[in-house]
Design goal:
Elements (H helix, E strand, L loop, with lengths): L1 H20 L9 H7 L2 H31 L6 H26 L5 H28 L4 H31 L1
Amino acid sequence: AEVWNALFWIILLFASMNATAKSFVQEEHRQHYYYFLCKPTDIISAKLLYSFISVLVIAVVALLIYIILFGTPVLDFDLYLINLVLGCTGLSAAFTMVSSIVFKTSNKSLLMAVLGFPIIIPVLLLSVSNANGLMEGFVWIQIRGNVLSLLSVDVIIIALTYILFPYTWRS
């Protein structure tokens, strides 16, 4: 169960990084158009929503394929899905924030990895810990603290994204 869980989150980590890393690189030619047309909060809200939906779709597809190929050691699937949604929120928000910071630099992929992994470590540790607990038969009472911590980390990352993005967008 631990290997199943670790491999699933590693796959999800790299898939989400690849999915969200290109969100601002694709907009390089339209930057001036967006600069005069939209507010920075509107742009980052759209990017966060798009990244979350794409990472969640990747996670659900990966989970279905994983279950078909290897079975599932998950005992409480509802709590596992809540943990998965919170983990996807953290992954997409962190990589969107880092992508918005590095999109004006010359070496985007290297900076994305260097800046992204320290930010993503708390999200991964909490998500993997929750998922391992759920595979061991933990109930809501036993993982409530970790789930609330994961939720608070997600909120902090999203708040930092909204605070920092207007400055990086205008520079």
